Amino acid sequence: MGNTGLIMALMMAVLLLHFVVSFSTKTTDINTDRSTLLALKAHVSDPRNFLTTNWSVDISICNWVGVTCESRNQRVIALDLFNMSLSGTIPPDMGNLSFLTRLNIGYNNFHDLLPVQLTNLYRLKFISMSDNNFHGEISSWVGYFPELQYLSLSNNSFTGPIPSDMCDRLPTLKELYLSDNKLSGKIPIGLFKCKGLQNISLAFNSLEGILPEEIGNLTTLRTLDLRGNQIQGVIPQQISNLTGLKVLYLSHNFLTGHIPVTLGNLRDLELLDLSDNDLSGTLSSSERSFLSSLANCSGLTTLAFGSNPLISGYLPPSIANLSVSLQYFDASSCSISGSIPGEIGNWNVATYLDFSGNHFSGAISDRVCKRNNDLRYLAVNDNQLEGTLPLSLTNCSEIVFLNVADNNLSDTFPHWLGILPQLRVLILRSNRFHGSIQSYIATSSFSKLQIIDLSHNDFTGLLPTNFFQNLMAMKEAEYVDNGNWYSLVVNLTIKGLELEFTLKVRMPLLTCIDLSMNGFHGEIPKVVGELRLLQALNLSHNSLTGPIPPSFGTLAALESIDLSFNRLSGRIPSQLTNLTFLQVLRFWNNNLVGPIPHGKQFDTFENDSYRGNLGLCGFPLSKECNNDEIAEPAQDEEDNGNGNGNGNGIAFIWKVAMMGYGSGMVLGISIGYIVFTTGRPRWLVRKIERDLQNKVSSWFGKKRMSPRKDEVPQLVQEQGVCM
């Protein structure tokens, strides 16, 4: 009995010691996690006080905001600080969270290098660090994570190559998002060893070289986004092995060669974007083309192959065989000829059609809107189209944007478009439209127009007073479209100087009236001064007479005005000094007289703004005013409803794009702009920069291309273009 008692006592002591050690170890581990997170808190700024008021020693770590603990041992297994406006750096201590399986610090303002100690977190299954400002090479901290399935580092400043052994380090990876960084080098062949990959986005980096044939090994791939790089060579035939692919972006690269007909094997394809490359292909009904092969893709909603100048031929009637689900079709800036087939009217859910910049001829088919009530964007500009606008356009009751510029259309003003309740952008520029506008305008027409470009036509008569009165979206904020995002490209020509801005923003970026280069005559109606939201006004190169209305002083948002090459007379109204946003003023070649107003913005304009008006005097001109040439109080003008010359005014050339995907329309938002020449108009640059700052929190232009986990596979789309 004595021995038995001794044995029992020893067993109890061992159990007690094990309990004490286990408890001590568990407490130590919990304390390690707590101290690690407190070290992180000490490294960040927390303007919204998410951590400041909650991460405290007085509160259990498992109740801290963004922290999830394992129920049994109370170790931290998940840290989710997504979109908390945090800024700062990640301390090396983070490598001590050894039980961590999920790390989400996306959409903050973390910066600097990531610590190498993160390689210790071998249990991680999910990492999202997107939309921060991390830099350095990925290979410096991505270690062996045998269970990692999701990795998103998009929208940062990572540099260097993609690790060639990425799949050896991450053998179970399913989703990889590295878009919008500064990555360089070739796409490593080793990346295609990740046989379980389902979604890849490497968009908008500086990757080069060819697209390897080994891409065909990723038979589980659903999304492949490589746009916005410097990839060369041909599209490999092996890409047709990806039979489960739904989204394929290859746009904005340097791809060459024929577009593979075998793309038609991708029967599950929903989005295909091949635009902005040097790809070739012949479209016709006599031979099988990539376009006809895509009839196999019954779920195709988005097809873009624009800006490939080597694509030629014509669109056959069989184009109607493309998916009835097609919402977005971009064939712009190719070399396609013939007529635009009326069969496109069979795409009765299409919201975006762009045929601009080709060699299309003939008339615009009256079948375009025969069955389609969802069309929002129609661009047929920069072709050789003739005839008149079809009345069937009134069936497109949802249309927002209509661009028929730079064709050979001959018609009177299409006043009947005024019944379209959503029309906001109307561009008839550079055609042969003629006659008077004034007699056609009903009192309720065009109330939502924000951009109207009738320039370079043969319109005559008085400027239409009723038309200006109807432009409610340029008067009252409640008429302005603030609910939709549009892709915008603005080509601006000033004095023969061309520059192009590519951006995507919420409407309206610019409210504009351009009636230049016509034959309007008579006085400028006083009611134009009621358009308080108008930002750009161009009435140049007409035969307008009489004074500049003093009511222009109430155009509070005006940033650019061009009244050049008319026959305007009288003094420059002093009320114009109230236009505090005015950046461009051009009164060339009129008959204006008297002293130039001074003060506010007028003190910033140089003498070039007033050239060709011999009767003007005062600063900034060298001609001094006589004593009797003093400024007079502005007089109210009677409302005289009221216009060709040669030269270079301010010309707006517009093109807008929206990208659709899935069951709804997803609109791209790009805030970057590209200037192709020097000599930018400061007013527009400043405006764009100001607007972009206001929109940056919800922007994703050539950015925001990598989705969060809950957004897959609906990648946000972007396709450049206009106003």
From TrEMBL:
Its main location: membrane. The keyword Membrane applies. GO terms for cellular component: membrane. Pfam families: LRR_1 (PF00560), LRR_14 (PF23598), LRR_8 (PF13855), LRRNT_2 (PF08263). GO terms for biological process: post-embryonic development. The keyword Transmembrane helix applies. Belongs to the RLP family. This is Receptor-like protein 9DC3. It comes from Gossypium hirsutum. The gene is LOC107916841.
